[in-house]
Design goal:
single chain, about 230 residues, mainly alpha, 9 helices, about 0% strand
């Protein structure tokens, strides 16, 4: 008898668990973690405006998340990645699982960024400030995960080229006012006070979520053609 094919959700969750376990065991995320913790230490070395601080840490989180996502997509060599895709029931499921794992890692850094200034300054922020900060960092994580996955193998096979493309896209996402939700979010927080409308920040987060969905679908399509 042939083994039954796992359901899509079961397969994706299995890829998430496997990818995170492999990523943590390999300790490949230590450079990104050390870099971002160092940036947070510098950004919040002295007390300052809450939302402006969150805007700066959200902007810094974008390239870190891009690098994190790119590294996480490359935890396996091509042969191992093929085996994982077969066991998951398809390359698309494996891609979604790795993307979800990268998203979880980025959100973990976002939580650290939210808590860091409160712990450093011994001050509790209000619900409105925390909500704005959460939306800003989530926008950065969603965008960074999308761009990192778009630069990963098999779309860009050589690590050096992938890293250069990821760095370029990170720069574009930070400075572009037309295609990047992160730029608009950072500018809104940097201009505070007054605090930006939460609905406006939420719209940028939704924009970033849509960008992640589009980039993941595009990556899956390109991967099928390039294999």
């Amino acid at each position: 008898m042939t083994a039954s094919r796992p359901s899509a959700l079961t397969a994706v969750l299995a890829v998430v668990r496997y990818t995170l376990a492999d990523f943590l065991r390999s300790q490949r995320g230590l450079p990104q973690l050390a870099l971002y913790l160092g940036l947070l230490a510098v950004l919040h070395a002295f007390p300052g405006p809450v939302l402006q601080g969150y805007g700066a840490s959200a902007g810094a989180l974008l390239p870190v998340t891009v690098w994190l996502a790119l590294t996480l997509h490359h935890t396996e060599d091509p042969l191992q990645a093929t085996v994982t895709a077969v066991n998951a029931g398809g390359a698309a499921r494996a891609l979604i699982g790795r993307t979800a794992a990268a998203l979880l890692c980025g959100l973990a850094l976002a939580v650290v960024a939210l808590v860091w200034p409160m712990a450093a300054n011994g001050t509790a922020y209000g619900p409105g400030e925390l909500t704005d900060g959460l939306l800003a960092h989530t926008t950065a994580v969603l965008t960074g995960t999308a761009l990192g996955g778009l630069c990963a193998r098999p779309v860009i096979r050589r690590p050096g080229h992938a890293f250069a493309a990821a760095a370029l896209l990170s720069l574009v996402a930070l400075v572009s006012r037309t295609v990047s939700p992160v730029n608009g979010t950072v500018r809104l927080l940097s201009a505070a006070p007054p605090a930006p409308a939460t609905t406006t920040l939420l719209a940028h987060t939704a924009w970033a979520a849509a960008l992640l969905a589009v980039c993941t679908a595009l990556t899956a399509r390109l991967a099928r053609r390039l294999r």
